[in-house]
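Notes to self after the Tuesday call (sharing in case useful).
The group wants a holo model before anyone commits to mutagenesis around the pocket. I volunteered. Ligand is pyridoxal-5'-phosphate. Logging inputs and output together so the record is complete.
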Amino acid sequence: MRLIVTRRDHGGYEAVTTRDDGVSYRLADLPRPRRILPLFGAAEIGYHRYLNRETQMLPSQRDLFEMPRNICYLNSASYSPLPLRTQEAGRAAVGRKGTPWTLDTAFANGQHERARAAAARLINADSADIALIPSVSYGVATAAKVLTIASGARVIVLENDHSSPVLEWQTRADAQGFTVETIRQPDDGDWTSAVLAAVERPGAPPIGLASISSVHWSDGGLIDLERVGAALRRQAAIFLVDATQSAGVLMMDVRRLDPDFVIFPTYKWLLGPYGRAFLYVARRHQGGIPLEQTSFGRRDVRAENEVYFADVRYVGGARRFDMGERDHFISMEMAAISMEMMAEWGAAAVARRLSMLTERIAEGVRGIGVTVPERHLRAPHILSLNFKDGMAKGLVEGLATEGIYVAARLRRMRISPHVYNDEDDADRFVASLAKRLRGG
Ligand SMILES: Cc1ncc(COP(=O)(O)O)c(C=O)c1O
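Result:
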């Protein structure tokens, strides 16, 4: 029997249960799903919400968050709020850590595998190809330990990309004899063409690796991973994708794209906690030596055995790359729940909603002294505003005094809505920005 809480077209929610023989019953009409949760127990609840039938767009999910109406939070690219359900799970998990004797022996493995499966689903990977890690930089360091970049080869990074996919290679370049080539931020905003030109530049040294974000964190520039991946394959180069700013929102299919490494954390677009991140490792690299040497990365190193180091060969798949002390049973479950929510909604429906909101803002700010990148060059969920004479000091802080939260990033203003934002938020931001730029 499965219980589905569904949002109705005309507002409110209904709880419907389906028996094993397929017959459905409506159990309750309620104004808010939170009232339903304690009634049936969260474990049996699946959330399903109607998509708008014409636009296939996810409706606002604001009431699944603790977000007062006067808060206009447009800063998910920095860090997102946690859904109420994730918060509740976190609180329950703190209590569980307070009473460890209540945990059965299968508990730990269940937690690891639930999170692994939830992360895998977001990029259409096999769970066995995902490692549990604490941060993007950890994932990049793991890749760097596994890979041998040929002496004299190039490693390509993006100008002002986030430090995590960049610094590891800069740190290793001299000792390993490769060069790091930084692709300049293109004036026309077309990152894909800039990357392709660098990869295919005639006469340039061979490419060993591209270590790049899927969406530039500072300007929201979109990188066409399919085209870049194909170009890299032609050069037999390795492809590491930092998917921090896209996982869950932009569809990624590792079976089709066939990257070497994909890394993403949960605390931004995946609505999860800090300290939980995931590393996809292509099978051709799974024989590498992990960053940390752990007992669970080996076939039989167990405290319960009479012989402790009984079999020190590595376990199969990407599990050997799991971080040490991986039993983060509070945040691991929170991460899993949030990622499962994102997967239930689906990247396409989420992206449609966020694209509607960023478009509305892009339209709204026309003629008030800012420019935005062309629509086909930017991600649907991040809008970067460029000010002709630079962004005025105190503008972002001023908006925050009104409860409007955006980020200053490299002289621009970055706006990053998520599923809890609606048209009112977009319009309120535009009105306040316009007023402030007029000096009002
Ligand atoms: C593109 C990108 N990569 C990585 C990170 C975070 O990296 P880490 O998990 O190593 O702190 C961020 C955070 O802003 C980011 O925007």
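Two things stood out.
The radius of gyration is 23 Å.
Residues 135-137, 162, 164, 213, 217, 242, 244-245, 265, 277 surround pyridoxal-5'-phosphate (CB under 6 Å).
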